Amino acid sequence: MKSFNFLAWRNIQNPDTTPYRPGAKHTQGFGLRITDIGSPLHLGNDRGREPRDILAPFDGRFEWDMLTPAGVAGSILRLIPHNGQDSIELQVFHSVDGAYTDHIEGECKRGEKLPVQAGDLGLSVGIHTHTELVIRDNPLSRQQMRMEDMIWLYRSGSFNVGHIWSHCKRHGLDYEDVIKRTSTQISTWDISYMSTRYAVRDMLPEYRLPHWGEGKTLHVDTLWSMDI
To answer: For the chain, what are the domain ranges?
Structure first.
């Protein structure tokens, strides 16, 4: 399979004008969490309560599923673009469906309102969405992301101690506790690399498998990559 050119795909989307949840405040970014709630490494971006509408950020198709049991995520919304569809998927968690069904799917146009909205399903401290851009792992995408300004947090079994310590001090977090919980998360989540822009997961649980199936995946900062 031809390597997926992430930067070319990103440029097509025109990130500066990509709709998604217009007006909803950014509450937690990609990388290290700024609070001690939840897992220390945050592999997505969170948007707040209002407005709750979710708009399609590109032409493609969507699939929404209620998760039973709800677990951490509660529900999963998959957004799959028509261009690059075999290598990329936007995954959104905690959203709710007003029709109280278990599954919805269909085609979507960029800027179109989807039939689900921000919710509080799963382990959530309030109404919001957690969004991750998932890319099939390939050397070209990794190389392109390494060209961007970023700081590594975990690699080859080691932590970036200086950066994590400074982050904890700045946000009033217990450094030893953060390192302990991060070690557990890395092992449980099969994270083999993490930076301030993207992470590599060696495998995903079944409910999170992208539409192309198993294999290593890149989880990319959506605020940096798509302005969402």
So the answer is: 6-226
CA-wise closest residue to 4 among 118, 139, 176: 139
171: Cα separation from own chain's centroid: 22
DSSP letters along the chain, please?
Answer: -PPP-HHHHHHHH-GGG--SSTTPPEEE-SEE-SSSSS-SEE-SEEE-SSS-EEE-SSSEEEEEEE-SS-TTTSEEEEEEESTTTTTEEEEEES-EETT--SEEEEEE-TTPEEEEE-B--SS-SSSBEEEEEEEE--HHHHHHHHTS---EEEETTEE-HHHHHHHHHHHT--HHHHHHHHHHHHHHHTEEEEESSEEEES---GGG--TT-SS-EEEE-HHHHH--
Hey, what are 147's tokens? 């060209």
Q: Superfamily assignment of 6-226 in CATH? A: Glucose Permease (Domain IIA) (2.70.70.10)
* Residues 64/103, Cβ–Cβ less than 8 Å: yes
* Mean residue pLDDT across the chain: 93
7-56 pLDDT, tens digit per residue, is 888 888 777 778 999 999 999 999 999 999 899 999 999 999 999 999 99
Interaxial angle between packed helices 175-189 and 161-171, expressed in degrees from 0 to 180 and rounded to the nearest 10: 120
